[in-house]
Automatic annotation (TrEMBL):
Keywords: Aminotransferase, Decarboxylase, Lyase, Pyridoxal phosphate, Transferase. The modification N6-(pyridoxal phosphate)lysine is found at K294. SUPFAM superfamilies: PLP-dependent transferases. Coiled coil: none annotated. One of its GO terms (molecular function) is aromatic-L-amino-acid decarboxylase activity. InterPro entries: Aromatic_deC, PyrdxlP-dep_de-COase, PyrdxlP-dep_Trfase, PyrdxlP-dep_Trfase_major, PyrdxlP-dep_Trfase_small. One of its GO terms (biological process) is carboxylic acid metabolic process. Its cofactor is pyridoxal 5'-phosphate. The keyword Transferase applies. This is Aspartate aminotransferase family protein. Belongs to the group II decarboxylase family. The lineage of its organism: Bacteria, Bacillati, Actinomycetota, Actinomycetes, Streptosporangiales.
Length: 464
């Protein structure tokens, strides 16, 4: 007879450890404090020969792993573009793990299907996208771009008389992809996955902030023929800059091209009246990608793909098989909108975050982060030897540290390393137009003015 499971002890241990971790976050060093050797020693050893008590396993895991965590939920984590986890979203994610639903089919989880349908409709309205827009809940910006570009590949080749799902790419009309010189690397990677290859990209010139030049796009489109996809950007990963989306859409559609907008975090500017002008015209595009684990602050992983042409979306992603139980009329099968077959029910956390924050709360979160990014730039730029490289229009700040010996790149990289070791805050490094820089990304719902001021003091101290 199978022993009745003891849920109480391991879950209580996990709850206590989780609450202790979150409560102590403001006082924890933001970076990891353990070496690889430390972690392997603590976590390693031979696989046990027999079962062990579940509560002890959870406790041992927490003790061993916590020194190796980069405390990304901290209000002073400014690396990459990583949000925290809103309490409602985190709690819903715990429930999602407990319910353990496979969200690919409505038959497997009517609740997961319904919550994605509702949250998807909320998001379409929140962003101001066309009413018929379809939505897919994916892992992140990479798979959101992949999914959107798969739909784009289907549609532009269909218009050219080619069925890529049936016949593949061999013999198909050559497809051109036009994207800004400062596009995100997930665009290139998605094209590799789709069999189009990096060489399908025609790079378009940009201005000094990384914004695509519509004139250069028009010239490139006119310089070739055949099916084309234009990849625009809402919020560059370094400067936060937006392509002139209205002009890009007009130029691209005039040439018969599909327009995809990569807005991993910048798309959220559309939810706030103060920043919506940055996204002007973006609703005229054909597809969009963004992340909920960035500015909506839901736990990893959570990406979103939107498509103004649901039939192309389903044609690229959908699958039919005799052993599958497909939804009846009106029921949503997530498998028709994402690359995944089996997948976790990440829609519950998105739903909870949206319902908890509401339209006003999401707008306030985005605006507050942008205001704090401006404070970073203003306070750092006031000091000699510190140069802010970008126009801070969103939540990204590029900072360069000048050295008396002229090795500004080396000095900047050294400052980034010192800041990461210091533990007060955590920023990542980057290269912008051939120059080393510190990249500060403000996207956590808990970050406040004190976090910024403490971080500025630490940065200046590490800059010497």
């Amino acid at each position: 007879m199978v022993e009745k499971p003891d849920w109480d002890a391991p879950l209580a241990e996990a709850y206590d450890r989780a609450l202790g971790y979150l409560t102590a976050l403001p006082d924890r060093p933001v970076g990891s404090t353990a070496t690889r050797a430390d972690l392997l020693a603590a976590l390693g050893g031979p696989l046990p020969e027999g079962p062990r008590d579940a509560r002890e396993v959870v406790a041992d895991l927490a003790v061993a792993a916590e020194p190796g965590l980069v405390n990304t939920p901290s209000g002073r984590f400014f690396g990459f573009v990583v949000g925290g986890a809103h309490p409602a979203a985190l709690a819903a994610d715990w429930l999602a793990a407990t319910w353990d639903q496979n969200a690919c089919l409505a038959a497997l989880s009517p609740a997961a299907s319904a919550v994605e349908e509702v949250a998807g409709e909320w998001l379409v309205r929140l962003f101001g996208l066309p009413a018929q827009t379809s939505v897919g809940f994916v892992t992140g910006g990479q798979m959101a771009n992949f999914t959107a570009l798969a739909a784009a590949r289907h549609e532009v080749l269909r218009r050219a008389g080619w069925d890529v799902e049936a016949d593949g790419l061999a013999g198909a009309p050559r497809l051109r992809v036009l994207a800004g010189r400062h596009r995100h690397s997930t665009i290139d990677r998605a094209l590799r996955f789709l069999g189009l290859g990096r060489n399908a990209i025609i790079p378009i010139d940009t201005d000094d902030q990384g914004r695509m030049l519509p004139g250069a796009l028009a010239e490139a489109l006119a310089g070739g023929d055949g099916p084309a996809i234009v990849c625009a950007q809402a919020g560059g990963v370094n400067t936060g800059a937006f392509d002139p989306l209205e002009d890009v859409c007009a130029v691209a559609h005039e040439a018969g091209a599909w327009v995809h907008v990569d807005g991993a975090f910048g798309l959220w500017a559309a939810v706030t009246p103060r920043l919506r002008h940055l996204t002007a015209g973006f609703e005229q595009a054909d597809s969009w990608a963004t992340d909920a684990h960035k500015w909506l602050n839901v736990p990893y992983d959570s990406g979103l793909v939107f498509c103004a042409h649901p039939e192309a979306h389903r044609a690229a992603m959908g699958v039919r098989a005799g052993y599958l139980i497909h939804g009846a009329d009106g029921e949503r099968d997530a498998i028709d909108y994402t690359p995944d077959f089996s997948r976790r029910a990440r829609g519950f956390a998105v739903y909870a975050a949206l319902r908890s924050l509401g339209r006003g709360g999401v707008a306030d979160l985005v605006e507050r982060c942008c205001t704090l990014a401006g404070r970073f730039a203003e306070r750092l730029a006031a000091h000699d030897g510190v140069e802010v490289l970008n126009d801070v229009s969103l939540n990204q700040v590029l900072v360069r540290f000048l050295s008396a010996d002229g090795d500004h790149d080396g000095h900047t990289r050294a400052v980034v390393e010192r800041v990461q070791r210091d533990g007060t805050c955590w920023m990542s490094g980057t290269t912008w137009e051939g120059r080393a820089a510190m990249r500060i990304s403000v996207s956590n719902w808990t970050t406040d003015q004190d976090d910024v001021d403490r971080s500025v003091e630490a940065i200046l101290r590490c800059a010497g």
